[in-house]
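Table S2 (text version). Query chain:
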Amino acid sequence: MTTTQPYAKPIPMITPENEPYWQACKQHELRLPTCASCGPHFYPRSFCPTCGSRDLEWRQMSGRGAVYTYAIVRRAPTPGFRGDVPYITAIVELEEGPRMMTNVVGVAAEPEAITVGMPVEVTFEDITDEISLPKFRPRAERPQ
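Corresponding structure-token output:
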């Protein structure tokens, strides 16, 4: 019999403002609130952070973007992260404009393996029955 270890890292809290985001992530879709005037924004909230409008609609994003900045974490901030070090935290700028704090996976956590501007695409890590975390991996360039 195989025993599954419980998830030992912080788990995001679902709130009324972000529930559609987490529901979409569970379906392995990246959806963000989008202002009729200003476009999409991240993190999910019930109003546009640019103009204050509540005229929002949830739209699916492409899931593609580029590394805006990153850091290689070599020391676990809490015991739950010990098995992950080194790992990459990053801010990814989506093609649609918003920037998301995330992890980059599928690349060695070495300075020469990741670059600012690296094209990435979303992938999801299912951590509980309710939560799937969006992370990003290097995007294979497709021939045109």
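Notes on Table S2: The longest helix spans residues 19-26. The chain has one domain: 19-138.
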